[in-house]
Design a protein that fits this description.
The chain is of the alpha/beta class. The protein is 25% helix and 30% strand.
Length: 268
């Protein structure tokens, strides 16, 4: 999978093959997102392209309300590649970018790719103050000879599968439900975190919002959780303790931790 920065567009080589594209934050790469990705990977003649964000727009526009990520950027990259995506355009969202109109945003994509198809989420909006909705995007791209599919949401028990709902489940400690909507276990990416040691424990200090500092991932509520820890030497099953200010693991878990897989609700 190739990754390029939005600021590097246009790149002429990417106009050599017709493209199919989808756009979004894709936090969690849940079952609903997978439906969107499937819409652009079905035609082998088309280059599947995802346009996504390095930082969540809320971090810039309303930093006090940023809820934290479900997945780290590294996790998102791996999930996109495993879904068959060939090219990712990564936007480093900023106040300047937020002032770009929806039509200008889409025109840059038209100028950068031989775009033939776009799979758009039912609730996706773009442009300054989110002024362009799915129907407006469809109308704009239709006029550029781009076929558009407004992809219907995936539902569970009549409710729409969404990143917002998954965050609620994780925050409530309902990890089994979060796993069901994600389509895989909830995984903490700790590969870039500073892990400290003390006595029989090692720990990661959380930031002031209760998020992992590097990945800015959300955490379930304080308590003890069964977990699988992935290290350079394989997997180990442990019980970790999530507190108000830290995540703590036994030293036996190994200090070269990459990922922590949480599959079950907390235990007493």
């Amino acid at each position: 999978m190739t990754e390029i920065a939005w600021s590097d567009l246009p790149v002429s080589e990417f106009r050599e093959r017709p493209a199919a594209m989808t756009i979004g934050v894709f936090d969690g790469l849940h079952r609903g997102h997978r439906s969107l990705l499937s819409s652009i990977t079905g035609d082998p003649e088309l280059l599947p392209v995802v346009v996504t964000f390095q930082r969540h727009p809320t971090e810039i526009l309303a930093p006090g309300s940023f809820p934290g990520f479900i997945t780290s950027l590294a996790q998102k990259r791996r999930e996109l590649e495993s879904a068959g995506i060939s090219l990712v355009v990564l936007i480093d969202f900023s106040l300047e970018f937020s002032r770009l109109s929806g039509s200008d945003f889409l025109q840059i994509l038209i100028n950068s790719f031989d775009l033939r198809f776009a799979g758009i989420g039912h609730d996706f909006r773009c442009g300054y103050q989110m002024s362009m909705d799915g129907e407006a995007i469809r109308s704009f791209l239709d006029n550029k000879s781009v076929r558009v599919d407004l992809v219907e949401p995936v539902r569970h028990d009549s409710a729409i599968v969404s990143s917002t709902q998954i965050r609620r489940y994780i925050r409530a400690g309902r990890l089994a439900m979060a796993e069901h909507l994600l389509g895989r276990p909830f995984v903490l990416d700790v590969s870039g975190e500073a892990i400290e040691r003390d006595g029989s424990e090692q720990w990661i200090s959380l930031d002031g919002r209760g998020l992992l500092p590097e990945s800015r991932q959300i955490l379930p509520p304080p308590g003890r959780y069964p977990a699988t820890v992935e290290t350079e030497h394989g997997e180990k099953h442990v019980r970790l303790t999530i507190g108000e200010n830290s995540v703590r693991l036994p030293l036996a878990a190994d200090t070269r931790i990459r990922y922590i897989v949480l599959q079950e609700n907390r235990v007493t």
